[in-house]
Design goal:
Blueprint: E1 8-13, E2 19-30, E3 33-34, E4 40-47, E5 50-55, E6 59-67, E7 70-77, E8 79-85, E9 90-93, E10 104-108, E11 114-118, H1 122-139
Antiparallel strand pairs: 1-7, 2-3, 2-4, 2-11, 4-5, 5-8, 6-7, 9-10, 10-11
The chain binds (1S,3S,4S)-1,3,4-triphospho-MYO-inositol.
(1S,3S,4S)-1,3,4-triphospho-MYO-inositol binds at residues 37, 39, 99-101.
């Protein structure tokens, strides 16, 4: 278990499915039971098959290219609240009955958690849809 309030760095290549950024999130089901919505802004880091939810502002540092084809992305996060395992999960655009907000993704985990991810920026949320879909697909068979 990682101590809280330390600084963590996660470096990846920008062509991989790994990424970080701010999204609004609410859980709607936990351990298979419906829970009351509580929309909160998180700094989210996609790291392999894990999605890390951090309170407070993180940082995405794009460092000098090591080669001409790829940038290096450094995701900095400090206040890890919780994480979810994507392996065996699914992500889809949420239906209108799930939320009145625009640009909402519904993420379901094998552990029985369902949560909504939202951004007012449609290209931002589309990138997350792509990255999460790729991560779920990549780790599905491991
Ligand atoms: O699915 P719901 O119940 O319509 O979701 C809304 C409520 O959770 C509401 O909270 P209260 O029931 O405590 O007033 C939230 O403030 C809204 O944001 C929720 O709806 P959206 O459509 O924003 O997900």
């Amino acid at each position: 278990m990682r101590p809280r309030d330390s600084v963590y760095l996660h470096e990846s290549n920008d062509k991989s499915s790994e990424k970080c950024g701010n999204l609004n999130m609410t859980k709607i089901t936990e351990h298979g039971k419906k829970v009351r919505k509580n929309w909160t802004s998180y700094w989210i880091v996609l790291q392999g098959s894990s999605l890390l939810f951090n309170k407070g502002q993180g940082e995405k540092i794009i460092s000098s290219p090591r080669d001409v084809l790829s940038l290096n992305v450094l995701c900095v996060y400090q206040k890890l609240e919780f994480s979810v395992e994507l392996k065996g999960g699914s992500v889809n655009w949420a239906s209108k009955d799930k939320s009145s907000k625009k640009h909402v993704l519904e993420l379901k985990t094998r552990q029985g958690m369902e949560l909504l991810l939202q951004s007012d920026n449609d290209s931002h949320i589309s990138e997350w849809h792509k990255a999460l879909t790729e991560a779920i697909h990549t780790y599905a068979w491991e």
